[in-house]
Amino acid sequence: MPRGNPEHSAMKYIVSIEIAVPREKVVELLADPAHMPKWLRGLVLHEPLSGVHGHVGTTSRVVFQSGKQRMEGTETITRREPADLREIPKGQAVHFEREIVAEGMWSAVRDRLTEAGPRTTLWVSENEYRFSGVMMRLVAFLMPGAVRKQSLQHMQDFKAFAEQGKDVREAEG
Fold first, then answer.
1. What mean pLDDT, rounded, does the chain reach?
2. Radius of gyration of the chain (CA)
């Protein structure tokens, strides 16, 4: 989607959360696709179309369902640093970045995980959305807080999963 196009509504925000789990464990849990349905509320499908899950350049088909609303798009991993997530040097931030394209929407998410303490991780997520089409632009205009709130909900769900083993699917059923 072209950047700077006046026909597109844009939204940027940052959300963050502290997780009472060591950074290495948080990274391990976030990187494992088997755990995604446990904390990513509404996830129906996340399947790689090309590449290896979580690696730079990999594209995946993603489907979310929220009530009667269904969103399908393509996710592309644009950064994973370090590439090898085992034995990450102390003090080094871990970066996961991706772009998602869906009908009427483009988004970029830049996640940074740092050690906030010996057994605590700070997760900072920078989010950028661009909306096109009348409906998506209207939704973005009328409910700008809803998208930010959903991002924070995903982070809170992950925190509950990482710290207490809570599975969002059990709460929904």
1. 89
2. 16
In the chain, where the domains are located: 9-40+81-166
pLDDT at site 16: 97
What are the DSSP E strand ranges found in the chain?
Answer: 9-19, 43-50, 59-66, 69-81, 94-102, 105-117, 120-131
| Predicted pLDDT at 8 | 54
Q: What pLDDT score was predicted for residue 6?
A: 43
Domain range 9-40+81-166, its CATH number among 3.30.160.100, 3.30.530.20, 3.60.110.10, 3.90.79.10 = 3.30.530.20
pLDDT bracket for residue 55 (50, 70, 90): very high
Query: b/e map of 25-48 (b: 16 or more CB within 10 Å)?
Result: ebbebbeeeebebbbbbbbeebeb
Q: Find out whether 115 and 91 touch, Cβ atoms under 8 Å.
A: yes
Strands 43-50 and 105-117: unpaired
